[in-house]
Amino acid sequence: MFRKEKTSSSREVVEFSKKNLSSINELKKYADLSLLKSNLYRDLLVIDTLYQQQQYMYDNNVKSVNDRIVSIHQPHVRPIVRGKAGAHTEFGAKISISVVDGWSFLDTINFDAYNEGSELISQIEQYKDRFGYYPESAHADKIYRNKVNRAYCKKHGIRISGPCLGRPPKDLKLRKEQKEIQRQDEAVRNTVEGCFGVAKRRYKLDRIFTKIKGSSKSLIALIFMVMNLEKAMAFIAVVYFFIINTFRRIIRQVQGSPQVILFKTLIIQ
Predict the structure, then answer these.
(1) Measured in whole angstroms, how far is the alpha carbon of residue 83 from the centre of its chain?
(2) What residues form DSSP beta bridges with 55?
(3) Tens of pLDDT along 40-99?
(4) CA–CA dist 65, 51 (Å, integer)
(5) CA pseudo-torsion sign 27, 31, 36, 42
(6) Which residues, in sequence order, are CB contacts of 75 under 8 Å at separation 6+?
(7) pLDDT at 164 over 80
(8) Contact status, residue 128 vs residue 118, Cβ threshold 8 Å
(9) By the 8 A CB rule, do 217 and 109 touch?
């Protein structure tokens, strides 16, 4: 019963949209649409494309279409099926980052639904462009451990995280060593999950409400830039206090007794 009502409602929406667009096409004979404001003209073009997509899905009895529009004000956003318990479908940008020694590098921002496992090779090549050599190991999620990526890593001498292909070795000691390496690899890979957690919790990465595609990309890039700046400032603070403490020890050794007040007076002057 619910399915019939849903189909009937979809048909009515398509018919109403067709009627309204036909009325607008009649008005075009008397006035040019360029007289509309830029945002209204853009919305009209999006609505026309949206109507064509809905009409195609209704006529062919399908539930999906390429580059499906789900928001008039954000036509670049695509539905991304994730299969999670809390949200089966998500909307927004797909972000791929690589973390090297705690520094986050934003590699990809894409609003289309695609298999992110195909990005490992390009991310490794970007690493080579940044540092001049290939990494010793790549710690990635299960979706990245396909045959193509494994063959690429093997060709360039890169160890990819995760269990080895084939049967486990019969030697119990060797099997235990492999499990320990896998456990350590997962611990290292959790650094990426931690970066996303910090970006969402402290910098509101999951609450971006900009409507323009370029503005969303800029805001996402700024979030990761600020995260790296915070790490840089913490590193500078550690170096600063290390230098101060070193000078204090040198002065104490030269003077023979700790002249803390004199040292502070000299710093103030």
Answers:
(1) 18
(2) none
(3) 889 899 999 999 998 888 888 888 888 888 888 899 988 888 766 677 788 888 899 999
(4) 12
(5) positive
(6) 46, 49, 69
(7) no
(8) no
(9) yes
